[in-house]
Design goal:
This protein has 289 residues and is an all-alpha fold. It has helices spanning 2-18, 27-55, 59-68, 71-80, 85-111, 117-134, 136-144, 150-154, 158-176, 186-266, 270-288. It folds into two domains: 2-184, no CATH class; 224-288. The chain is 84% helix and 0% strand. Helix 1 packs antiparallel against helix 2 (27-55), helix 1 packs parallel to helix 6 and helix 10 (186-266) packs antiparallel against helix 11 (270-288). The chain is rod-shaped and about 130 Å long.
Length: 289
């Protein structure tokens, strides 16, 4: 039963790590990720059964499974979404912080009620899965809006600093608990609770400030584009006015020329009228050239 609980918990972890990327993934890639994840979940159950039977159920076997069980799912995401590596790293770090918080909450509940290693490990895994199930709507909403703007990750090298920040934050605690001690001190467990809460609050503040910064940049770009369009419209308007002035002058000249031709024809001075027409034609050709 324990391998099933652990495998389901890791599959659920992988689901939440995929949520922030789901809006930028094709349906075909979604199906591939889903199928590969389900297959590995089934394989991992038998793999964990073998490990627990061979090495026993204790901290030395349970902790490595928790700490490295995410890796196949991470490889699946990276292999099928190679253009989103910084985002995958960032989401993994955020999910690791959340998992650390929920594992710590589950451990605190279990320690108060159970004493043997098997009971502590089994019920810790069960409560961890239950916490995920209870908080599913909230976590889904949180992870769907987890990723900052893609502009963050397109920056180099700043984008990688942002992607690695959650993982750097959580790595200190992961190193501290990477031993064969099943239950750490109360203060260690307490720090693993308030660290994620403080970090998430800090992250939301940074994200809000960064979004305001990029909104300001976008407004500046839009302002610049509008100014360029306004300048173009002004030039176009000036050109229209200039053309209208030219047309007005041409109309006046044509009217004057027609009056001369009409007067000459009225006086039966056909030769002079033809000469005037030739002069006008020659001037038009010169202006054209």
């Amino acid at each position: 039963m324990l391998p099933v609980l652990v495998s389901l918990a890791q599959l659920l972890d992988a689901y939440f790590r995929f949520l922030p990327l789901s809006n930028h993934v094709s349906e075909r890639s979604k199906r591939k990720i889903f199928i590969c994840s389900i297959i590995w979940c089934i394989v991992s159950i038998f793999f964990y059964i073998f490990i627990f039977k061979a090495c026993g159920i204790n901290a030395a076997t349970y902790k490595p499974i928790l700490m490295f069980g995410w890796l196949p799912y991470f490889i699946i995401n990276v292999a099928l979404l190679p253009d989103n590596l910084p985002q995958n790293v960032f989401v993994f770090g955020m999910a690791a912080i959340l998992a650390l918080l929920q594992h710590t909450l589950a451990t605190n509940i279990v320690v108060a009620n159970f004493q043997t290693n098997f009971d502590i490990i089994f019920y810790e895994a069960l409560i961890y899965l239950a916490l995920f199930a209870v908080s599913l709507p909230l976590l889904r909403k949180l992870f769907l809006g987890l990723l900052p703007s893609r502009e963050f990750f397109n920056l180099r090298p700043q984008g990688w600093y942002i992607a690695l920040l959650p993982l750097i934050i959580v790595s200190g605690h992961l190193i501290r608990i990477a031993d064969d001690t099943l239950i750490h001190s109360f203060y260690d467990r307490l720090s693993r609770i308030y660290l994620p809460i403080v970090f998430f609050m800090f992250y939301r503040y940074i994200l809000s400030a960064a979004e305001n910064f990029y909104d300001l940049q976008r407004l500046e770009r839009n302002k610049s584009l509008l100014q360029e369009k306004l300048t173009t419209l002004k030039d176009y308007n000036a050109l229209i006015q200039e053309n209208q002035t030219r047309i007005s002058v041409m109309r006046h000249d044509l009217r004057h020329s027609y009056n001369i031709i009409y007067t000459l024809l009225e006086n039966n001075e056909i030769e002079k009228a033809l000469e005037h027409i030739k002069i006008q034609k020659r001037e038009l050709e010169e202006q054209k050239n």
